[in-house]
Amino acid sequence: MNSLSDLEIPALLRKYGVKPDKRHGQSFLKNHTTAREIVRHAGLTESDVVLEIGGGLGILTRYLVQPAGRVYVVEIDKGLATALRELACEYPNLTVIEGDALRLPLPAANKVVSNLPYSISSEITFRLLREMDLDCAVLMYQREFAERLMVEPGSPIYSRLSVNFQYSASAVQLMEVEPEEFYPVPAVSSLVVKVQRRSEGPFAKDEAIFHWMVRGIYSYPNKHVRRAFAIWFRTLGIDKKMADDVLSLCSSRIPPTAKLRSLDLESLVLLADTILELVREKRLPRPGESQR
After folding, report:
1. What SS3 class is residue 142?
2. CB 27 within 8 A of CB 186
3. What are the structural domains of the chain?
4. What is the arithmetic mean of pLDDT over 10-17?
């Protein structure tokens, strides 16, 4: 059997009292071939402990439990959690955790493999990167979201999301998944990507300063760098002329007329380290302080 039919899935959902919630992007993968391929990309062995978020009816879960040593699946829907517990009766290496993956303590795992609920894609991705020691994650996202994770600086869709994600990790596209492979059929297509933590390249001397700066200036991604800093400083109660001081210290690498969206990670780290020095000299406030 390569897929569940559009009659079988509604019957299963009725059995467990589940109504798909379109507001939360809740669609169920029905193609077994796609599920097997997703699991293959994770390269699972008996030494792997795997976390799946949003197990649904278990189409991905049943392929995870076969090669992995231990699988934890988090499912917020009571009916779907019941369905997954029935599957766990067949597989002693499967543990079902009922609850919200954004709120629950996450189990220790070295890999995450999941068709993520699209409504929490950003929040759960950054939680995984903050809290888990991962070898890799194989994750399905809405295409538009995945493209923003992988995009290069200078693109019209390069955003604060892109910067914050690429500061911590990298993502490589593995496969496309068409809307027709889900029930109900969503209005968007999906991409499966492999996420790995970044271990090389530039890192800011103070990550709190880096993220404070990015949050401040990336409200204006289409502005020139100088203009973005001037607006941010004004909101902090700082003389906008301080933008010239920051950029004069980085002038060998960053022209003030460069578009903010064109700056690569190395340039942003240089700016953050410059901000840090000005904070230490008490010419700028620390995050959370104001000069108003």
Report:
1. strand
2. yes
3. 8-197 (3.40.50.150), 207-280 (1.10.8.100)
4. 92
